[in-house]
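Session log. Operator J.P. requested a structure for one protein chain; no other inputs attached. Running the standard single-chain path with token output.
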Amino acid sequence: MNRYVLTGAPGAGKTAVIRQLECEGFGVVEEAATDIIALWQAKGIAEPWTHPEFIDAVVSLQQTRERRVAALPEVAQFYDRSVVCTAALADYLGVTRPQSLVTELQRVTTQNVFQRRVLLLKEPGLCHTDRSAKDYLRRNGPF
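Structure written below.
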């Protein structure tokens, strides 16, 4: 099983690429942190990333999503970010990496869960009006 991580800055197009890969029949795992943020904000927590259990929640959702696609027969699977990105997020937020994250990092390393080559999407630099974006896509294609 080949598992590839897509990563990049916010707005770089990771989710759009994941959606296209999914449409083409590949197994995909969606990014977890954004979904945890949205869920917690819906529950009235304005800044979930300031809570100590935030990183644990992200790791837990990532693990659940990985297990869900693990049994699929696809030759390649694509992950919108990964536990490595979650470690970078924890470091960026200045929080101590919780044991769940440390354990998961050890697991993905010792079991060679992901391919060593990461797919890095650079920011497209498209901050255009809707019409300009449509013109760009018509000229250059979506991917």
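Operator note: Residues 108 and 132 are 42 Å apart (CA to CA).
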